[in-house]
């Protein structure tokens, strides 16, 4: 499998690296967070100053220059393309009915500020009450249904600003 990584340096320089590029580095660990790297005939001294492993971000000092580096693998890139980035504002701007049903209750009004997982409305479908919650923080822009209304699958229910 061809592994590809997107590397962002200091928030602006983007590089694409393959697994083979990384394997070709001649790196020797000299202490807990220090490395000596030989690449293309040039010698580099590298030190990991800080890291947030789960976020894949690192602060690295290379030959006395400090760089902030973010690394995304192919799964991270796919998640970003789909709009499901972790730790960022989700890009969901509307809620549609997941199935046909009846609106039993509406818990919000236009202009209300909601937080992620706040209950928006209750949809009765197949004799079950389904609480539809907010997928993100935001402000309610449109409520496209009324209490007691029958809705079809994929019908617009709520829209965010």
From TrEMBL:
Positions of the Lipoyl-binding domain: 83-161
Source taxon at top rank: Bacteria
Gene3D superfamilies: 2.40.50.100
Metal-binding is among the record's keywords: no
Keyword set, alphabetical order: Biotin
Protein name: Acetyl-CoA carboxylase biotin carboxyl carrier protein subunit
């Amino acid at each position: 499998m061809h592994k590809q990584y997107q590397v962002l340096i200091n928030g602006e320089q983007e590089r694409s690296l393959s697994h083979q590029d990384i394997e070709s580095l001649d790196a020797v660990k000299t202490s807990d967070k220090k490395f000596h790297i030989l690449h293309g005939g040039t010698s580099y001294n590298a030190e990991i100053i800080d890291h947030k492993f789960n976020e894949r971000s690192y602060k690295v000092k290379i030959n006395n220059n400090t760089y902030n580096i973010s690394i995304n693998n192919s799964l991270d890139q796919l998640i970003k393309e789909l709009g499901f980035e972790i730790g960022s504002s989700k890009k969901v701007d509307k809620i549609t009915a997941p199935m046909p049903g009846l609106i039993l209750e509406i818990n919000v009004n236009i202009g209300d500020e909601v937080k992620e997982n706040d209950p928006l409305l209750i949809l009765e479908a197949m004799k079950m009450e389904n609480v539809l919650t907010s997928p993100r923080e935001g402000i309610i822009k449109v409520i496209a249904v009324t209490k007691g209304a029958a809705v079809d699958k994929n019908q617009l229910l709520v829209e965010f600003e």
